[in-house]
Each structure stands twice: as structure tokens, then as C-alpha cells.
Write a structure and sequence with these properties.
- The chain is an alpha+beta fold.
- 19% of the residues lie in helices and 54% in strands.
- The strands form two sheets. It has a six-stranded mixed sheet.
């Protein structure tokens, strides 16, 4: 699925991030993760800074920032996304981050 210039993966996996789970359809990521994060936080932003590519694997190092709407607490956390790219399309994405920092910002 394409949203703007971003090709979204068919599979997205995260174990303990809020809204964690495995999303197996292109619609799963924007609906199950991105839209719901937008409901909870004011302007979730990913600040990408480093890309590492090796064959089908691409790792993006970044930082997420936001302010949770309910708690008013800021989120400022480092993340790594591991993408698998085949035929020019992202077919898998896995997220790694300090989930405790995100959970703490979202907990009342």
C-alpha cells in the first residue's frame, strides 16, 4: 500500500510498543498503528538519521517525539526499524525501541 511517498509493509511487528502486534495487511499499519497513535499523541514525529543497508535488509535509526494528549508527558525515544525490501517494496518491518519510556509517557 502506498501513502504519499511511503510504501507500507504487509507485515509490521512490535512486541511491547503500545498497539503492539503483528499487522499482516497493508491497511493494518496505518489503521492499527499510525491512526491510533495520532489519537493519543500530539504530532508523533519520526526523525530519521541513519540508514544501513545490506542486501534485502535496511535498518533505519531514528527518534520518535510526541506529547501524549491525556498525560501531557513528552515522548522522546530512540528507535530502530528493520525493513525487508523485495522487488522495490517493503514486505516486512520490525520496530525496536525502549518501550518502557513510551509506556511511562502514556500511563496516567
Amino acid at each position: 500500500m502506498t501513502r504519499g511517498a511511503v510504501v507500507l509493509p504487509d507485515s509490521f511487528s512490535s512486541n511491547r510498543f503500545p498497539l503492539a502486534g503483528t499487522y499482516r495487511t497493508p491497511e493494518g499499519v496505518p489503521v492499527g498503528v499510525m491512526e491510533k497513535l495520532g489519537e493519543d499523541g500530539d504530532v508523533w514525529t519520526a526523525h530519521d538519521d541513519t540508514y544501513v543497508a545490506d542486501g534485502e535488509s535496511v535498518v533505519v535509526l531514528a527518534r520518535y517525539t510526541a506529547t501524549h494528549r491525556v498525560t501531557g508527558r513528552p515522548v522522546d525515544v530512540r528507535v530502530a526499524h528493520h525493513f525487508v525490501v523485495r522487488g522495490g517494496l517493503i514486505v516486512r518491518c520490525e520496530l525496536f525501541t525502549d518501550t518502557a519510556l513510551v509506556r511511562d509517557a502514556m500511563s496516567p
